[in-house]
Amino acid sequence: MATSDQLQLNKTLAISTSLLASGAILSLSAYTVPVLNARSTDAGSSTASLHQLRSIFSSGSHVFPQLAILSSGLFGYLATSATSASNARLFTAAAVSVAAILPFTAFVMVPASNGRLIELEAKAKEGGEEAVGKEGGDAEVTELLERFGKLNFVRGVLIGFGGILGAWASID
Fold this sequence. Notes:
6 helices
């Protein structure tokens, strides 16, 4: 049986990790993607926006899944240690909501955004900025950035909702 201090530490880590990750993910949708989108309409900037978005998506894949696993695992542990059925249900829902970013990313975001992002970036490397701009490429870059921003927003809400549920369960 975990001590009260250990449970408090687990609650603090689970909640803060999920809310920190949510804030970082949501800031990409709220601030970074609109800036990249505005820049992509400037002459010669579509390729740069593609490269930057690809870098952001790639770097996030090395941080956010691990934070989600940590937070979800801690919420799961808290669910098994809960003293009431309602808190156990809330911690379980928090664990599921936080962990939901993993399949959402793998089965929704990657197919919807990452594949086309890689193709456009390769096309830009082969033929330069002009290759992306031909045949509606600039519009496609804009659409891709907007799609990524919306899907990323959903991902941020999922992990943030888990953090809120965990915080709610922690209020005795």
